[in-house]
Structures are given as structure tokens and as C-alpha cells.
Amino acid sequence: MAVTLHVDGRPVKVVDDSTTLLAVLRDELAIRSVKDGCSPQGQCGCCTVLVDGVPRVACVTPVRRIAGRQVTTVDGLAPEIAARWAEAFATAGASQCGFCSPGIILRLVAEAEKAVPNPAQALLAHLCRCTGWLPILDAFALAAGAERPVSLPARTGRDLAAAARRAELEGHVPQRVGPEVALGRGGFADDRAPSGALVAVPDGSGGWALGATLAQARSAAGKVQGRRTTVAASHPIELPAGQWDVVLQTSWVDPAYLEPDASWCVPGGSPAGTLGNGGAFGGKLASPVTQQARLLAASTGQPVRVLWSREDVAAKGPKRPPIAAGVDLSTRQVVVRAARTDGLALRLQAGFNAAIEAAEAAGALRAGSGPPELVIEEVDVVGPPTSVQPRAAGWAEGVVLGSVLWERAVPVAQPGGGAASVTIGPDGTVQVEVDPGEVLDEAVLRSYCIGALHMAASWVSAECLTVSAEGIVQDLTVRSLGVLRAVDMPPVQWSVRPAASAGVAPAAPMAVSDAVFAVTAAALWAAQGNPPSWPTHRPLR
User: Fold this and answer.
1) Where are the domains of the chain?
2) Alpha helices (H) in 269-377, listed in sequence order
3) What is the DSSP letter of 320?
4) CA-CA distance, 100 to 95, in Å (whole number)?
5) What does pTM read for this prediction?
6) Nearest to residue 90, comparing CAs of 72, 106, 105?
7) What is the pLDDT of residues 465-494, one digit of tens each?
């Protein structure tokens, strides 16, 4: 049976074969601004469209329910409306990779029409890992005609090349910056796949299932919808033996990037990279999908798209290595047991050293009977793969453990980069000061630093995965990850450390958001009274 609907102002007739609206928009109509971040979980908001002006997630909407109705994507917004929102997102730094922002813009366009809009509440339907939410709320204020947020830099004109340089410094890979990114045009791998390419997805048995469409490939694979477990998460590493003044256990944590691993390749060609517009916080640097796209294109003699589902990312993607540590304040000794991971010990030591050196330089090191010492024991843990590639993995944990020996918060410099300090006021306001050298673009710098702050706060307070005794990840939905929502974010006061004296040129531009990530985690843990395990499940506001 055929179903007729109106998409971005034009009538479209499709066959009703129990497909979803998302499948029609992306696979049949090639509307790539509608993103597939969790399909078909209906949890990330990346596929949000307007149906008769009302926001709806397309991945769990059967197309038959939209018969005769008006569907609007960001491509179908009136040009002046799309331009206003895209410019506001670019101005506020509300879009970094741009994967989530088309759906968010549509949600906020509808929210702005309400008599009493509540954008933070509206964002409960979405997930953004990059920006820390606050730049998005600033963008809403700009686009909806409210007063300009005082936290935004007042400037006319903008050097987008300089902005992209700052984004590359912070994200560690080339990244586009500009209004078009907010509209979903950042160049993601699956958006650029050739028409008619075969689709390959994991078949659950170590192989790959192929189909002419994503729906057919998933059907051939027998894909089962992932769920969130009801079993409480545990801490996989026991504390080191000893009498400790402070202890800390962490669990498995996912990088929580929104664009699932994707690549494509034509026979004899080079596969599309997984980092379309952003670094995925290090989570995709060793993704196997590129090599698999090459192999499948060669074996089939056809172009092939290779896609992971959200469940695949949760089960197979690299996690932060869990740790368990004890601190003796009198001897200033820290003993940490960590999941055996290549390069982890060196990064733990480097982070600890950075924290101690910063405290010594500031005269803020706690007195004790011996020199500060970190003792590291790596242990074998049954569970998902771990890596030091996720954001500041190991180094940030080292900074956090070293910070227990501080008398007060001090600025810490990340390896080869700038320094940051974070303090938390009595009312919960987070005060961030950074020294990034030459700023290049304040909107991008601020966005990355608030995003790092949000990621650290989420890590300490809310994020973990349940893993079975057999080492199998049980939390397979995007909401299982525990990423903090917009309504959970505390107020943030942001500043860039001025040059030593007037007329002194700033240093060369340096990355600084990883330092923000580490010192935010340290400051929040201290403000909460150094609870013995993460996540602490304590509110931030």
C-alpha cells in the first residue's frame, strides 16, 4: 500500500512496508540533515523533524502514521529562519561536530513559538556530547530574539579559519566551523555515501550482514533492540589493600559520541574516514569499520556502506579504563590499581606529576612526611575494550588523584598545551579560567571548554555502564550512558587569563579543554567531599 506525505513542501509517495519515517527520509529521499544517532531507540533526538509543526523523532515513527501530513526538516525551513538559527548556533558555539544540531534546531524553533518557552526542558528530548548545553541555550536566546547573553563575546565579524584552527586544537582533528555545520552539513561519512551502495552491519556472530538498504541489512542480521539493564552497575576493580584517608573507584565509561561508527568504500578505493567533523573524543581512532568497508567493497565488487548501530558502539567501542585507588595523606602516597591498558601507566604518572608540579609552583601542596608518590598496579579485568584514546584517559585520572594532595585549587597545564583552573562556589557556580595562548576564536574556545566541563561533571556524577560477570556490556541504549542533561548543568562563569601585562603578545595558541576536563573532575569531587566511588549520583545544582 502506498502512503503519501508532504516533505519540505513537496508531495512524496512511498510504499508502506512497515518502514520508519527516518528510513524514508535518509534512504529513499536522501535527506542527510536528519541524523541516525540511536536508531531505532528514539532517545538521542538527532532524527527530530516537525510533523505538522510539532517535533517528533523519526526513527520510531512508522511512516503510515504520517500519511497526508506535513514533514519539515531543517532543509525545509524558510531560508530566513534557517539562516537565523544557524547563525545563532555558530555565534554561540552551540554546534561543534553538528551531528545533533539539526534536530535540536527544529525542536527549538517549535519551542520559540510557545507563549512561555522553556528551552532547557525542551532539550530533555536530545543528547549533545560536545557543547555542554549552555552554548545551545545562548543560541536559543539569540535566535528567539531575547537579549544577547552576557556570557557571549561581543564582536563584529569573525575569522572562521581561525575558529576552525581553535576547533582542531581542541578536538585533535580538522573540523569545520560555520553556520552550515549547525544545519548538519559537516561532512559525516554516511552522509557522503554513494547512492545505491550496499549496506553492511554486524551480524552478531563476528561477520557482516548485507542488504540493499539499512533496514534490509538489519533484518538480515536479526538485529535485536538494545535495552537498558535493571541490574545496578558495579566497580570492577577492588581497592588496594591498606588504611586510606581517601579512596576512589571508577567504572566503565563510554565516550558517548553521537555519530555511530560509519564508513564506505568503492572497489579499489580508500574508505571514508570515521571522523567526518570532529574527533569523537578519541573513541573512533581505531574503529574497524574503515578496513571492513575496504574488504567488503573488494569482495562484492560494489560500493559498500558499513555501519555500527548504537548497540554496537556500546558493546564494542573503547571505554575509559576503570581504576581503584587509595590515598594516604600523611605520607602523601597514592596507590592505584587500573585495568591493564596499553600506555595507561605512563599517562597516570604524567597526570599525577602535572598535578603535583602545579601545586608546588603555587605553594599549595599539602604537607606530609614524604615526597608525593604514585604507585601503579595494572590488573586484568574482564569487560569491554579499554583505551587511553578517549578524552585525556589516564592523564585526567592522574590529575584527580594528585589533586587530593592540594590545599586549594591550582591551574594545571595539559601535555603540550595550556592551563586551566576550576573552582566551585558555595552556590554551586563553576568558575573556569583558562590560559590558551592566542584565543583565535572565543566562541569556539568557550564551547569546547564548557563541553569539557560538562563531560567531567557527567563522568564524576552520573556516567557508568553495567557489565556482566562475563564482561558483556548490558547497557545498550544511549540514555544508559548517564550523560548529564541541560537541566542538570550548574551556572558557569568563564574567563580567559589575561596576558602578564598590557602590550604583551599572547603565546602561540594551545589546546586547553582537556585541562578543563581534568581540573573540573578534581574540583567537583572535592566539592562533593571526595565520595569513595564514581558516579557519585549527587546533583550539581
Assistant:
1) 2-75, 77-187, 191-224+261-307, 323-527
2) 289-300, 310-316, 344-362
3) B
4) 8
5) 0.95
6) 105
7) 999 999 999 999 999 999 999 999 999 999
